[in-house]
């Protein structure tokens, strides 16, 4: 029996967000390979991304950079290609919109799913993004099962798609297949693992430190301590009522208030005994360390996530880190997402995709696009010739900024 992933989703969820329990039992099913011990690992990852601000920002930014600013192609060589890129499915979505969703899923889950629709005559090609949290690999490892709620799985409600490059005819007469993108991880065959897998715990720390600060604000920085109450009571119901009234007035989070109820004397000696702890600096340091570890776990960069803007806007550093990200992360992810799509367009529609490229633009520019080439070379300390016809061009004329983005 093939090894399955041993990530305990229930433990992750309960440690990360206390109100949620995503199931403690290990799920076994003859129809699919489980994704996490309880088959709800994507739900746990989604929950964490909604609660940790830095973690979510990095996922959003990575997906935006990978999706780029649209597509460029040689419209003169193949006019039909540019028209197709503007509408790749029956919902009117452009290829960039589909790629953007795939990039987000792959950044969040380490997996993404693309449904491909055509007909036996290959008269059309439609590309649909499928929510990765709704997809599971079938037991035969040759199909993808789609279901709306995996916590209440019913085989009769699931839809099956063959894995690319296999096609199967559907009830409506179309041929369909599903491309499964996944990040490689040793010991995990059926599903990919997100790049930030080592940062799950630090994402939880960042969330909990944020929650702790919010609780302090909500309760006006109320101290933890012991509340001594003097009251004459006749039964436990009255005692519970008095404690609940006191809790509504005094109790708060963070910290706990211990209530001690004793029989009242002639004089009321009720009092609150605070327990002070000077740990604000420790919490701040812990939060900062967690944020730094999250960035490292994502293989990302602080300036591209807006984490260092408070210390000043350094456009040169942003451009340098963008160039590193472009050559180490962005271009590789773009190639992984677009290569099978290029093959499909060429195979089924007959378009030449050799000129098809994603337009990448840095978040800031070191030189204005209205600068001439010789001026830019002069600014960089390079040889320049103002009389050279080629160097008389503006930067906008020799970069992708002037290409028509197909968005």
Furnish the topology, listing elements before pairings.
Blueprint (H helix, E strand, L loop, with lengths): L8 H8 L24 H11 L1 H15 L3 E2 L6 H7 L9 H15 L1 E8 L7 E5 L4 E3 L5 E4 L12 E4 L5 E2 L5 E8 L17 H19 L5 E7 L5 H15 L6 E6 L8 E5 L4 H18 L17 H35 L7 E2 L14 H7 L15 H4 L9
Parallel strand pairs: 9-10
Antiparallel strand pairs: 1-12, 2-3, 2-8, 4-5, 5-6, 7-8, 9-11
Helix pairs in contact: 1-2, 2-3, 3-5, 3-9, 6-8
Protein architecture, described:
- There is one protein chain.
- The protein has 407 residues and is of the alpha+beta class.
- Among the domains are: 224-275, no CATH class; 367-396, no CATH class.
- Helix content is 38%, strand content 14%.
- It contains 11 helices and 12 strands.
- It has a 4-stranded antiparallel sheet. Strands 4-5-6 form a 3-stranded antiparallel sheet, with no helix packed on it. A 3-stranded mixed sheet has the order 10-9-11, with helices on one face.
- Strand 7 and strand 8 (175-182) form a beta hairpin.
- Helix 2 (41-51) packs across helix 3 (53-67), helix 3 (53-67) crosses helix 9 (315-349) and helix 6 packs antiparallel against helix 8.
- The model is unreliable at 1-24 and 401-405 (pLDDT under 50).
In short, what is this structure?
The chain is of the alpha+beta class. It has helices spanning 9-16, 41-51, 53-67, 79-85, 95-109, 200-218, 236-250, 280-297, 315-349, 373-379, 395-398; strands at residues 71-72, 111-118, 126-130, 135-137, 143-146, 159-162, 168-169, 175-182, 224-230, 257-262, 271-275, 357-358. Among the domains are: 224-275, no CATH class; 367-396, no CATH class.
């Amino acid at each position: 029996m093939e090894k399955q992933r041993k990530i305990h989703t229930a433990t992750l969820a309960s440690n990360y967000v206390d109100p949620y329990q995503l199931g403690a039992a290990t799920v076994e099913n003859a129809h699919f390979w489980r994704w996490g011990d309880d088959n709800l690992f994507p739900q746990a990852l989604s929950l964490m991304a909604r609660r940790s601000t830095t973690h979510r920002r990095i996922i959003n930014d990575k997906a935006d950079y990978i999706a780029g600013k649209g597509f460029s192609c040689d419209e003169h060589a193949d006019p039909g290609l540019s028209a197709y890129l503007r509408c790749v499915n029956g919902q009117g979505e452009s290829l960039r919109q589909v790629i953007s969703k795939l990039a987000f899923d792959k950044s969040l889950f380490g997996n993404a799913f693309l449904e491909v629709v055509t007909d036996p005559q290959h008269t059309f090609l439609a590309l649909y993004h499928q929510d990765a949290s709704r997809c599971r690999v079938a037991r035969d490892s040759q199909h993808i099962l789609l279901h709306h709620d995996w916590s209440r799985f019913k085989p009769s409600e699931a839809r099956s798609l063959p894995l690319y490059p296999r096609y199967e005819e559907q009830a409506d007469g179309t041929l369909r297949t599903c491309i499964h993108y996944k990040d490689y991880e040793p010991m995990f065959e059926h599903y990919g693992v997100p790049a930030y897998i080592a940062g799950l715990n630090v994402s939880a720390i960042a969330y909990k430190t944020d929650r702790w600060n919010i609780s302090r604000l909500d309760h006006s920085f109320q101290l933890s301590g012991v509340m001594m109450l003097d009251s004459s009571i006749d039964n436990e119901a009255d005692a519970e009522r008095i404690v609940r009234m006191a809790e509504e007035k005094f109790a708060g989070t963070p910290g706990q208030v211990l209530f001690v109820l004793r029989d009242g004397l002639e004089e009321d000696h009720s009092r609150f005994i605070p327990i002070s702890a000077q740990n604000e600096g420790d919490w701040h340091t812990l939060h900062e360390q967690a944020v730094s570890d999250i960035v490292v776990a994502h293989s990302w960069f602080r300036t591209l996530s807006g984490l260092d803007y408070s210390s000043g806007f350094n456009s040169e550093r942003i451009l340098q880190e963008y160039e590193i990200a472009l050559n180490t992360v962005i271009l590789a992810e773009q190639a992984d997402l677009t290569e099978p799509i290029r093959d499909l367009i060429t195979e089924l529609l007959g378009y030449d995709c050799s000129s098809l490229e994603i337009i990448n633009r840095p978040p800031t520019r070191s030189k204005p696009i209205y600068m001439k080439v010789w001026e830019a070379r002069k600014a960089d300390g390079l040889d320049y010739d103002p009389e050279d016809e080629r160097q008389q061009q503006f930067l906008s004329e020799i970069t992708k900024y002037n290409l028509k983005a197909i968005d």
